[in-house]
Amino acid sequence: MAGLLIISEPNADSLIDDSLINDSTSTIYSRDDIAQLFDLPLMDLLLQAQTIHREHFKANEVQISTLLSIKTGNCPEDCGYCSQSGHHRDTTKLQAEKRIEVDKVIAAAKRAKAAGSSRFCMGAAWKHPSAKDMPYVVELVKEVKALGLETCMTLGMLDTNQATQLADAGLDYYNHNLDTSRSYYEQVVSTRSYDERLDTIENVRNSGINVCSGNIVGMGESRDDRIDWVHELLKMPKAPESIPVNLLVPIAGTPIGDKVLAEGQLSVLEWIRTIAVARICCPTSYVRLSAGRESLSDSEQALAFMAGANSFFYGDKLLTTGNASQSGDDRLMRELGLTKQFAAPRAPKVLPVMDAMNGHQTQVVLAE
Q1: What is the mean pLDDT of residues 295-301?
Q2: Which of these is catalytic: 75, 119, 279, 281?
Q3: What is the mean pLDDT of the segment spanning 236-259?
């Protein structure tokens, strides 16, 4: 594809020259290029984002996920936006819950599939899974995949061995958000470094699992921070296959939530602008509407889809915050003419094989 054009002027010059095309067909954007995109008139930005979206995805098709909290609360991290942090439990009053039994998770996955979700996401409030947690999450991956669903997990930090175990079980996606820019990160969390987040993403990528990594806008960061976050995605060897773009749902009792409730929330149009820039810069990635969607009007959601969002969560709850109702989503999809994407789970890397002659079970490692 030729270099993208800034379409605010009829005879505008090419934004990026053709020599900067990489192997993944994505144009490489500098930080200045990303800033220029943010500064485009909104209608021009949306048109450019939708045009690029249609070059890489089927028009009017959306990927639908369901998210379940498999272990809630008492997290040792101190993320300033999160009610699940043990650091804020005295002010948020969130009721902690232990790991959900496997059969209850599978029942929830079956309901999600019946409702039309193609991907089932499971989140646990851990800094990282422990050794005793790994058999549990591996079993969940295998059981959910057996239903024909794509699988995603967010469990905190992973080392190389843990990533490999999840990859061998067939995990499709692992979510580990950067949350914000490197420079603003220390305003959000102190118990985990930015580089540790990047290390986990690298471990996931090297294991063969698809990366899901996004941000939360509206935490008091500047547009420069949003520009830097997009640029950080582009500095990765490969952009995440899935990019959730969350709008902060301010929760009373959390430091960032209290600050935003007192000072005011970010404009929805700035959120949509961020979605559009992410779509342009990461053209082959799913860009997901995540937290904050429940507060949008139908028209605002339509704008977000025009901006290139092509994934969202079904269900009344996202971990601990509210979400748009499924009936409302179904109605809106009918009105907008959107269709659901079918699941395409990948095969596990390791399969059990039974010897029919002697009854012994062995494992076969599948080729990539």
Answers
A1: 89
A2: 75
A3: 90
